[in-house]
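Hey, sorry for the delay on this. The queue was backed up all week. Below are the sequences that define the complex (chains, strands and the ligand SMILES where applicable).
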Amino acid sequence: MKSGLPQNDPESAIKAWRKAFPILFLPVRGKRLAYLDNGATTQKPSTVIESLERYYGETNANVHRGVHDLSERATAAYEQARAGMADFIGASAPEEIIFTRGTTEAINLVAWSYGELLNPGDEVLISALEHHSNIVPWQMLRDRRGITLKVVPITREGDINPDDFSSALSEKTALVALAHVSNALGTVNPIADMIAQAHAQGAVVLIDGAQAVAHMPVEVQKLDCDFYAFSGHKMYGPTGIGVLYGKSSLLERMPPWQGGGDMIRTVEFERSTYAPPPYKFEAGTPHIAGAIGMGKAAEYIRQVGFAPIMEHETILLDYALQQLQSLEFIRLIGTPQVRSGAISFIVTDVHPHDVGTILDHHGVAIRAGHHCAMPVMQFYQVPATVRASFALYNNHEDVDQLIDSLQQVREMFG
Ligand SMILES: Cc1ncc(COP(=O)(O)O)c(C=O)c1O
């Protein structure tokens, strides 16, 4: 890995990163934009935007089907993107990368396909920290196949309780599905240890990496997870594209979950036979441009380097936390042991939606709501929180703009 920020002039490095993102320089409601809604989606660098334009302008054709030059080039670019994603997360082969619409579809794929291999009485273990995408597909599996869904509680600080996690595991646990990083609280789970514990009980493990891959290096072989799901749009890539990583040995055993073109070997009216993974799981025309754009986004992240990204984001998170804690009218929701990317909070006596609307008028884009994690809101007994979430292009000015705008909120509400 590259070393961290240049010690002599870190500000210039961050300025140069920001220049790659044209949208950051467009005023919003006549104000400088402080974009702090990166947990919802990140902005896109020019290289990603240009790759989409170039694909549609110069290469567009359907993949895997044509014998003509454009189709061959589109196929090569699509498969190159797959190889790039395998490299990005340290998979052992491109065949372990399935392109999906995003994290949600990747988790549903596992629930619908691997889920078919589970039996009544098998247990699926999740945590109370999960995004709805990592809850609802398992409830649907429970209702379909009679599995038992168990939920590991969280501590007041917003960490998965380690003792409860260990004691929830047993020989009945068939699958463990956990967020790498919580989108609602920013908690970074100690997933390497959790994966090892789950494996010791013979369970397979799916990691929801939606909030991790833009912030920290992920090495799926080192982690030894069985599945890893993530979205292009949360890592500076396009929307509508994502990845499910799966170990080849598992993908080969799993039945397809959607039928159609591209996923078959032969079709007769009596029966069909299926293509090998990953194609078995990619029915229909894929989001070719999206995959290429996601590949470019991964290239962009690697070019910047995780060491400087992590150093910068840690400094910025610490600064934001310190500033927020200095405001007596702010209550932090969740104080996890290790945090990445996001801070959730409440402004005393002001509904988060009102906070969001006022901040918007000051050019500050944050998220106010339940963050698709209603059980987390229920745990803290709040209807919603305000969430500021960070990306590599955020700077101290963005945090200052957030803090100044929060002061305005306080003044307006007395
Ligand atoms: C932790 C987590 N999991 C899953 C998702 C769903 O991602 P997508 O909407 O891209 O499928 C999100 C999106 O916010 C998330 O933060």
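The pocket of pyridoxal-5'-phosphate is lined by residues 102-104, 131, 133-134, 179, 183, 208, 210-211, 231, 372 (CB under 6 Å).

I'll add it to the shared folder too.

S.
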